[in-house]
Amino acid sequence: MNASGPADLSTEDAKLVTLARATRARIGAAEGAAARDTDGRTYAAATVDLPSLRLSAVHAVVAMAVASGSAGLDACVLLGEASALADDDAAALGDVAGPEGVVVHLGDARGRVAATTRVTRAGE
Asked: Around 35, how many Cα atoms within 13 Å sit in the side-chain half-sphere?
């Protein structure tokens, strides 16, 4: 995982910010995430915090992509309180990273991106 400062977001990445923000706000979740796969399809999810099931927003969005038959992810946005990508979230993204890895934009609940990083497949 390589960290850097926030970059100017492409139109497609800005769309992910909008999806993550709306998904998080709709249910008042701690985090919202959105991802784009290598075919250009998008997925959005929020933190799941039930008595019998707990998933981070990143884990939920990765599960949605995999369950939909995605071959890999190119980009992900995570909005919430975290200032860094959690190790287990990075591992999940690495499992489904596209050939160039997954660009991950981290931001607050209002959608202001504060950091950008790239996650690659394990061993790359």
From this structure: 32
CA distance 25 to 10: 23
DSSP 111: -
Please, are residues 117 and 85 in contact by the beta-carbon 8 Å criterion? yes
- Contact at 8 Å (CB) between 81 and 114? no
| Range in 6-20, 31-45, 90-104, 105-119 the model is least confident about | 6-20
pTM of whole model > 0.70?
yes
Rounded CA gap, 92 and 87, in Å?
Answer: 9
Q: Where do the DSSP E strands lie in 1-124?
A: 2-4, 32-37, 42-46, 48-50, 53-55, 73-79, 102-107, 113-119
Element of type H or E holding 67: helix 57-67
